[in-house]
Amino acid sequence: MTDQQIRRAVCPGSFDPVTAGHVDIFVRAAALYDEVVVAILHNPAKVGTFTVEERIGFIERALPEAIASCVRVEAFAGRLLVDVCREVGAEVLLKGLRGETDYAYEVPMALMNRHLSGVETVFLPGAPQFEHVSSSLVKEVARFGGDVSGLVPDEVRDALLARGDGGR
What we know:
By secondary structure, this protein is of the alpha/beta class. It has seven helices and five strands; from the N terminus they run βαβααβαβαβαα. Strand 1, helix 1 (about 20-30) and strand 2 form a beta-alpha-beta unit. The protein is globular, with a radius of gyration of 16 Å.
């Protein structure tokens, strides 16, 4: 298959940290596309909970072996998401949605991305068991000593606990 025949999707986010809901979307996206590029979008002027390198590692190690070969994790900064799609040769953006609030937030961005470049956005509904899970909520729960087991990969849970501040 030539590079132009490969059906490629970009799954963008900050993934600070990656959650079980994110991993579920990556697995399901890998079943739909030949290659999934998990695009860690970051602002170099902002300090995240985890470094970009840590986030890349967490995601790569959380991927089931069966899909690891068709998922690529890369970091991008200082450019439009549609430019990232062009750079990697992706035909679509793929976003997981937890509910109506995510949908209301994502639709205007999807329409703008299509306006700018013709890139379509595909929405996948998140798994119901992760509907309440977000990176920021996980960090807050961990910060106050709550158990985030099953909501994030074990390695992420351990890293949050080791920080002692829940990833502030």
